[in-house]
Design a protein that fits this description.
The protein is α/β, with parallel strands linked by helices. It contains ten helices and seven strands. The chain has a single domain, classed as P-loop containing nucleotide triphosphate hydrolases (Rossmann fold, 3-Layer(aba) Sandwich), CATH 3.40.50. This is Replication-associated protein a.
């Protein structure tokens, strides 16, 4: 099985990075693609969303014998994997994950070894999946570098505001730097715009500036609009009553379009 590993990123917080990481993984899983989402953020927002989905929508409880931090220290991720549904698994974050940086610095002598540690562990389980989606904090730290080293591609999540654009530009510069430093085989899959006010003048101005900065070919044509139902998922879990609920139908149709473009971009890059 050819596994595609993607990090979603931006050095600006609150831009919708976690929501889009989870919804992309969820949508891929609904397409029959075996998917794993890795929550490498100690804030655990992706974990909270999927645990809420399990309890509120599926009526199940998370079943795992170790936290991700314990699994990382033991050198095997298998016992931390949570089965969400038929095609979707999760490596969940927990409070103790904030100790990961200290673990790396006390266990390994240099940045190269520290930054490649997670990738080596992930490679032992990733062959089970078609897609691995990594969600990381919006800062330059060991979580970010560990994810980038483990990834084939990056999707930059760009909320249409000036600070998000600057965070995206800084993120791509860091991507290029770490790619060069470690000779990584990693590419920018695209910049996914998340509209702040559904297409007002500021949205359009930021998208225009981003196109100038990143290039037309690197901009996703599909844009994620503001949708109240997406915010509601944090409380209710990801509902999918598309046949009876127009708001669910609109959300899932949107992410079907995002995933269509994601798959097309992969096809074009791979030739």
């Amino acid at each position: 099985m050819l596994t595609t590993t993607i990090t979603t990123g931006n050095f600006k917080g609150g831009v919708g990075k976690t929501t889009n990481a989870v919804m992309i993984a969820y949508t891929l899983s609904n397409r029959g693609k075996k998917s794993l989402i890795v929550d490498l953020d100690p804030q655990a927002n992706a974990t909270d969303l999927l645990f809420t989905t399990m309890s509120q929508v599926y009526g199940t409880k998370p079943d795992f014998s170790e936290t991700l931090e314990v699994a990382l220290k033991k050198g095997s991720l298998e016992n931390a994997v949570v089965h969400v549904n038929d095609n979707l698994d999760l490596l969940p974050s927990d409070d103790d994950l904030q100790n990961y940086d200290k673990f790396l610095s006390s266990s390994f002598p240099d940045d190269y070894t520290q930054d490649h540690y997670f990738s080596k562990l992930l490679s032992k389980i990733s062959s089970k999946y078609d897609f691995v989606i990594l969600d990381v904090p919006p800062q330059l730290n060991k979580f970010t570098d560990s994810a980038l080293v483990a990834s084939d591609y990056v999707i930059v999540i760009l909320q249409t505001q000036e600070r998000s654009l600057r965070g995206a530009e800084t993120y791509v510069k860091h991507l290029l730097q770490i790619k060069d430093d470690y000779s990584l085989d990693i590419d920018l899959l695209g910049v996914l715009p998340v509209l702040q006010q559904n297409g007002n003048d500021l949205d359009l101005d930021v998208i225009e500036d981003a196109t100038t900065s990143f290039g037309h070919a690197n901009m996703f044509k599909q844009k994620v609009r503001q949708m109240a139902r997406l915010k509601r998922f944090d409380r209710t879990g990801i509902t999918n009553n598309a046949s009876h609920d127009i708001n669910d139908r609109r959300v899932h149709h949107l992410y079907d379009l995002v995933v269509d473009e994601l798959l097309e971009r992969l096809k074009l890059i791979r030739g």
